[in-house]
Amino acid sequence: MMKTENYIKWLIFAFLSLFLVACKPTADFIYTPSAPSTGEVVKFDASKSSVYKAKEGNAISVYAWDFGDGSQGTGQTTEHTYTNAGKYVVKLSVTDLAGQISATTQKITVKQGVAVTQKVSALIQSSDGTLLPNAKVTIQGQTATTDQNGQANLNLTLAQNTTKVVVTFEKDGFITQSTVVDVKDLNSVQASLLAVKNTLLISHIEDTQTISAMSLGATITFAENSFVIESTGVTAKGQVIVKVTPWDITGTDLNAMPANGFARDAKGNIVQLISAGMITAEFFDAQGNKLQLATGKTADIKMDLPFTSLQNKPLGIDSVIPMWHFSEIDGLWIEEGTGKVVAEKDSKTGLAVQATIKHFSTWNWDQPVYLNEGGSAFVKCISGDIPIRCDIRFTIQYKDNSRLAFKLNGGISESGLMFSGNIGLPKNDQISKVDWTATNGLLQGVASSGTNGDQVTIQLGAPKSKNFIRCRLPDHTFSDCSVINDEQEYKSISKEGGTVISGSNGTSKKWTASSYVVQGSQVVIYQGTANSGAFDDVMIDLTTKSIPYLIQCKLADGSSVGCDVKADNNITLYARASGQVYYLDGEVNLNWNANSLPSQENGVWVQYSGNTFKVNGNKIEIQLSQKTIIGNSVKNLQLKCSVGIEACSVRVFIIPAALLDEWLKGNYDPNLPLSFDRKINMDENETVPIVLPNVNPQDFIVFDSMNGDYSSTRTPGIPNELLSENQVIEIPWDYSLYQMPE
């Protein structure tokens, strides 16, 4: 009997094992050519892979490739180029919608190709146009270094069959850039590099914590023991330097978008990206070892969303945006996961975007776009009356102010170039404008156009000023720095210096510089000024020292909240939940007081306050331990059209208290989705009731009259807490009866 039971159990186990194997997908692929040479593009195709129950909707969701030379890829179809001859094992792993995984391998032999020589000219500058010396350009392991004018020349040896290469541009203090370039365009390549913005010190990387950058509401949150030393896998502990750069894609940062905005989507297609936000983060221990998230660990990243739409398509809470990480090896963005739009009261748009990631790199929230959308423009460059070749980059600005940046490798010849087809443009009715920037050595020029077959001629002229700038610390060592000139243009200068050229007139210039330096357990900032002529070398001595502190308010449970802060020496500021940077001349020896913004608890509005604080490196945390109940906001009002007014038309809307300053300055986004926004029409002496949402009592209600002499576009508002239930508001209303902010 026992033997029979065991036999039955064995049969059941065997059946289940066979069933589970049958449920798995089958990985399979082919590649062409079958006997490739170095430099030749090898095409891999996994379309023969299959899944269990495909007719019921199952499908392969992930194709992961390992090419055997340290490079990886994704997508059902993909391409790879081997730079060294040899035998490689290519592995394909597929994952279906049920999470089942299958893998297969094939051997590939790569022959040595015939070598040829290619001359390459490179120009490397910062995202704001500073020419960068001592920057390195690398192609297939061969390197050259730029001179004082950001230029480098390279005699490149390539396999004869090479059609594409990855070109990498790098410099200390800047974010590394790489891009795929067709060999036919290698005669001239250019890159813009973005300077690292924030250097932060973390005392104990092994702790659970949230790191806040100094701009754009960018935060990184991770659990305890999340990091390992990348080269050894050992758990990281102790003090760590974090280099965090939130990209401001509404400004010049977009000029440095890695990979020229090109990406490989989850299906293996090459697409162009339009960004909703980017963030770069790198972690280093005290010995300089690079850190990375441990296997199985994740981190949450979040930053303000600068737009309420992307490529003219609305974005709102719970909108999903594809995520992409930058691969320096591939010179492409790689699709991986999604981000979600969330509410963020401290953002100028009221929105932020967040995502969970498994590794650190430069991450990008983007929609894929296609440039062959029907628009066109013909572009040529001239110097005086003479046509010349030039390097071109352009920025497409859509009607919703979202933007797409592009650099054309190889430049355009003296005869000009029609941008259409594969290097085409969106239709003219989709965009506001296209901004063109052209260079030829130190010659430069700009122009703007539409995309309705516009003829664009860019006049390139010699710079009217050229200054080589360096920044020097009190100990006479040189440092990276950020410089602002008379034209209020910010320039990124490396510790080796940088050349700033300008087309603006002016024989004398004033330069103001600042530099962040790690000293002990803190980051400090040094500042200085210098004057120069139009073509002088400039040495800026940084002699004034201050300490940037990130001020943040914390509740008893450890969560962060937005707060109004006051301190000695008449310091007043608003600190959003992610913190607010304030500069002090020395160590913290002030008294701090803070009040949180009102929030709801069990249907009642409350406010927290406190004056206890602690200092940790460059962070000041104010503890809010005292709770005050401030009651409820007014919900019902009566609007009345005054006697003597034939008819009234009024827009009633609510400005969140956290964004009031932006509203009064005129910086409030008019397209921001509001919690309450109604237009009401009334006849003379008519009264109309309105019901408001349960908002923060300190939110502002705006009554914007829109008829006749009472038309207004910036009517002052009134705090909800100064109103009374069922109060009658006459239109036009006399806001002088209420206490208004100055």
What would you say this structure looks like, in words?
With 742 residues, this protein is mainly beta. It folds into seven domains: 109 residues, Sandwich (Immunoglobulin-like); 79 residues, Carboxypeptidase-like, regulatory domain (Immunoglobulin-like), CATH 2.60.40; 172 residues, Chondroitinase Ac, Chain A, domain 3 (Sandwich), CATH 2.60.220; 84 residues, Sandwich (Immunoglobulin-like); 78 residues, Immunoglobulin-like (Sandwich), CATH 2.60.40; 85 residues, no CATH class; 102 residues, Type VI secretion system, lipoprotein SciN (Immunoglobulin-like, Sandwich), CATH 2.60.40. The strands form 13 sheets. Strands 40, 41, 43, 44, 46, 47, 50, 54 and 55 form a nine-stranded mixed sheet that branches. The protein is globular, with a radius of gyration of 30 Å. The N and C termini lie far apart (93 Å). The C terminus is likely disordered.
Overall pLDDT score: 85
End-to-end distance, in Å?
93 Å
Going by helix content, strand content and strand pairing, the class is mainly beta
Note poorly predicted spans.
9-21, 707-715, 735-742
Major β-sheet annotation: 9 strands, mixed
Name the overall outline: globular
Count the strands?
63
Q: In CATH terms, what is the fold-level topology of the largest domain? A: Chondroitinase Ac, Chain A, domain 3
